[in-house]
């Protein structure tokens, strides 16, 4: 333990602490504060319970004095994964010490002090590859890209765009000098780059940030050329702007703006307003609050659920992604997606559209690659966005649950197409947890540049690589998976969208009974699988899948699972 | 036997509009004595819609448009179809024929009396004997040392809406029964409906007492005393008035009311607060209005769900059933349940309570027994509530639908507890309104006997049992029942959900896209015993898909509803690369204009494409 950490720990061990976890009887034991963890061990001879809580996952901490003349204290810990724990600690001083240690250690500022830099499990080695793919690999694997698109290293020093990776895919016709000029016309230098190539018709999805047209309607020939080069002379493309038309207009006053029809003849702009930033964060807070109140009646619950607007955001995300996919697949047009910075809702829309269109992104590895490409490498500022979750009392800065919204929308896709995704809800829950606090380095930092500067890849383990290890992978796969080449168009009727109870009611009695039920259902599935096997001959793989379908169907109709 | 519509066999070039998107289908409309049939034209394996006249709740002719005359048909099974008939005259013909056909005035006109599933007399008879209530009471251990079968209502003289066979405490003599019945609305005196053997506690049901502001009836007080005495485990009996207190108070002015605790020794009186049939009717209507809205936003959906109050009412019934269950199984007390007449809310609460207490009722056959007992035999007024004959619209109310909804909510919480799936509930709902079988016709057992239903119609139970493989729950676990004989559902508000598969059973764009047909197939494959039936079903399916027109009085009618609600139905637009019926057009993420020729400045266009328009 380095000096800096031990400074924060005034009381390392407290005995006779009572731990109250949701849905469990209270436990008595020893609480121990370490540099990165809170460790609780039940004092019992056999089969004692141990809790290892990553301090980084503490979202908020409340303390109050209890007992006669404040002789003992209670600490309530609200975690970023929405779990709430309570510790009853004998001794006021111990209680205050523990609380202040947790406060300090859960909000360490420096990235390199965080646990991923210290996590050294025996079975992993730092020399193993970090990450799943790179733009180079993506390019190399898509032969049909080659005649039209090239890899550019214009950003090799992160000098053109701080938040882009070193290499990006751009039209062949555009040289690096033009790219650099186009970048200077886009907010944060995020010039239009390719993120998806649709094999069946050669159309693409690109993303960028807003053009900096400003109040004087500035234009940039290089930017216009870049977009023109992405499509044929005779073709037309769509720009899906994730802001309302009014917001786009107003953005001009702040130096931003939108692509004017006059200068981008072959592009048609559509506005689809998606909420972002603070509005989304507040929505999450309201939803979590509603889910945490067991005393309310039916009407109050529905009204709070409505008032949180969370499902509306899920709806907007899915229908905008549906629109993008529709442009590409049905109408045969290429699409550019952007909002303001192009680091949040833009990524939400492009990644969901790919899930709808691209069977490769629906596999276990493909989905992780999608997240790596569209979120990690594309520069979603995880560090700011996931600094706090729904319980924090800290003043909101740049927190925004855009990534959580992506996971929720993906879950909805999984509900509607129970056979189409190779991964299960369990993976989504794991990602929701790790995006906020993790043993792994994957979601650290906000850009590739930052990751390079802090040597994240050299000094931490990669979550995605870890999840793909065989023994881990098994926990997260969807046994019903049946690959399909087809697009999966989600229904966006409000009646078709559901509250993601697995996430938001994860720690309630409700979720527990459902978990039990699900476990039993899986047991049956496995049993069936095994009883099927000896009989063998008559049963093809397909029919075995069908017997899962059965169960999944039921679960589907149970909507809650 | 198609009806000829003004010299033609069918009306051609009729457009069917989807109510949630811009999709239209063109086809021909036929009218038979029992069905309205729409057949899609010029498509191999054409889509067909069969609508039973009895299912039609309303037909509306909307004002003329350029493409023709719109005809809006709303069905009791929540199907809504919107036709556009090219010629006004044809539209009027269909409209007036339907008006004539959909309001039968006598029982003889109902489908059940002409429906013929090609069974002989013996099969018919066997069908009617499948569910036997005497055997059911035997199963409950009755009669026993405290409860006896009474013949007081042998000839329906004491209470004409009760069944003949009634179980009462052995200490309740005939004069007490008769006296009590005179003090109860419609003569519905307290009788046993379920017996919890483990604690010897009884669930009894009745109607409200005619107590007014101060009236008493010694026989009725004796009756309750007798019920209390029959249970040695508890010194008192609960009296559950399932109405809101205010309603019960108001009834006093009409000479009715509720039990005064001072007059009855050893009772514990409790109001439960389930609203009446009129509130429920309005609530469902509001709900259907909300979910039937085109381009409904998520917020309006949730607000509408709240303001309809539907889930609140569902929760109130479940809450009442839980109260009943706890009183009986935990406290070991007997409970007397009533509302006003004791045939709506009382049936809901007693039936749901029994379902929570006794795993038998969670089996397919047990559920039939439960419905036969609590609903059919005890005189839930199916004819009035389901509007079987042209009657008083104020008597119509979705009381039974609500019960099925409550059962579904329990199935959601206890996926392994029920032998049957939600399709069974949906099928029951279908047939409560179809009037295709005799079981649910009329308002009481007496009336059913007068109609000689057992000789003139067929039993739904036989039909459902014959195709039970369609309704089985694949993860049903009898061992779950052993571990949880009594279900204890959670009543947190988030456990109560909108039952999409019921209220949108015909709106296939709303459902999960990968499922149902496979589901059925799987069921067969996973259970080798059912293999034979599987082949039959498959044959039946293809038969239905290819040429159902030939069988007008099809015994397979019920199956077609499974087909219609199946998202796996063959997709018309074969060229599109999509997964099983999911389609971008149907979802309408936005109105993409296929051509760029429009000269509008995009910014202007986008204003029109507001967020609100994204969900067509």
UniProtKB/TrEMBL annotation, chain A:
List the protein's name: Myotubularin phosphatase domain-containing protein
The GO terms this record gives for MF are: protein phosphatase binding
Q: Which GO terms describe its biological process?
A: negative regulation of autophagy; phosphatidylinositol dephosphorylation
Q: Name one Pfam family in it.
A: PH-GRAM_MTMR6-like
The Gene Ontology CC terms held by the record are: cytoplasm
Q: Which InterPro entries match?
A: Myotubularin (IPR030564), Myotubularin-like_Pase_dom (IPR010569), PH-GRAM_MTMR6-9 (IPR048994), PH-like_dom_sf (IPR011993), Prot-tyrosine_phosphatase-like (IPR029021)
Name the family.
Belongs to the protein-tyrosine phosphatase family. Non-receptor class myotubularin subfamily.
The residues covered by the Myotubularin phosphatase domain are 129-504
Q: Which organism is it from?
A: Electrophorus electricus (Electric eel)
User: Which lineage ranks, top first, belong to the organism behind this chain?
Assistant: Eukaryota, Metazoa, Chordata, Craniata, Vertebrata
From TrEMBL, chain B:
Region Disordered: start-end pairs: 556-597
Superkingdom per UniProt: Eukaryota
Which segments constitute the Myotubularin phosphatase domain?
A: 127-503
- Membrane topology classification: Peripheral membrane protein
Positions annotated to bind substrate:
276-277, 339-345
Alphabetically list the UniProt keywords: Cytoplasm, Hydrolase, Lipid metabolism
Q: Which residues form the active site?
A: 339 (phosphocysteine intermediate)
Which Pfam families does its entry note? Myotub-related, PH-GRAM_MTMR6-like
SUPFAM superfamilies hit by this protein: (Phosphotyrosine protein) phosphatases II (SSF52799), PH domain-like (SSF50729)
Which spans does this entry mark as compositional bias, Polar residues?
A: 580-597
- Per the similarity annotation, which family is this? Belongs to the protein-tyrosine phosphatase family. Non-receptor class myotubularin subfamily.
Q: What protein name applies here?
A: Phosphatidylinositol-3-phosphate phosphatase
Write down the species: Electrophorus electricus (Electric eel)
